[in-house]
TrEMBL record:
Database matches in PANTHER family: RIBONUCLEASE P PROTEIN COMPONENT
GO molecular function: 3'-tRNA processing endoribonuclease activity; ribonuclease P activity; tRNA binding
Keyword Nuclease included in the entry's annotation: yes
Function: RNaseP catalyzes the removal of the 5'-leader sequence from pre-tRNA to produce the mature 5'-terminus. It can also cleave other RNA substrates such as 4.5S RNA. The protein component plays an auxiliary but essential role in vivo by binding to the 5'-leader sequence and broadening the substrate specificity of the ribozyme.
Enzyme class (EC, first level): hydrolase
NCBIfam families cross-referenced by the UniProt entry: rnpA
Gene name of the encoded protein: rnpA
GO cellular component: ribonuclease P complex
Cited SUPFAM superfamilies: Ribosomal protein S5 domain 2-like
Family: Belongs to the RnpA family.
Reactions accelerated catalytically: Endonucleolytic cleavage of RNA, removing 5'-extranucleotides from tRNA precursor
Organism (species): Agromyces flavus
Record protein name field: Ribonuclease P protein component
């Protein structure tokens, strides 16, 4: 389970990251990333719509995505906000495939380096 410090909980934060973040498409997900100030905790949010499947299937996909993000935190990932939107194909994907999608999104963000401006708080507005 992700710690509270590693979760995006505000709808405004979700909206801000999805609208202003760098978009990285994977086979089973689309990720939106924003760099944050150095030393800040990495935060994650998940969007799993009914197109993915039944409630049981959606929760399974969400738990797998959370576990993949937890591994990134354990590996020392900091200073990024990441929202992962699961595509319908995620319903049939196994854990390694979902983990690869998330890891690819983060690695592409790291290659871009400081080109992404640090995320402003949702209170600052769009």
């Amino acid at each position: 389970m992700l710690a509270k410090a590693n979760r995006i909980t505000s709808a405004d934060d979700y909206r801000f990251i999805v609208r202003r973040g760098a978009k990285v498409a994977g086979a089973h997900s689309v990720s939106y990333l924003r760099s944050t100030e150095a030393g800040a905790d990495a935060r994650f949010g998940f969007i799993v719509s009914k197109k993915v499947g039944s409630a049981v299937r959606r929760n399974l996909v969400r738990r797998r995505l959370k576990a993949a993000c937890r591994e990134l935190v354990d590996d020392g990932l900091t200073a990024v906000d990441l929202v992962v939107r699961a595509l319908p194909s995620a319903a049939a994907a196994d854990y390694p495939a979902l983990r690869a999608d998330v890891a690819t999104a983060v690695s592409r963000n790291r290659r871009r380096g400081p080109a992404l401006a640090p995320a402003a708080t949702a209170a600052e507005g769009p």
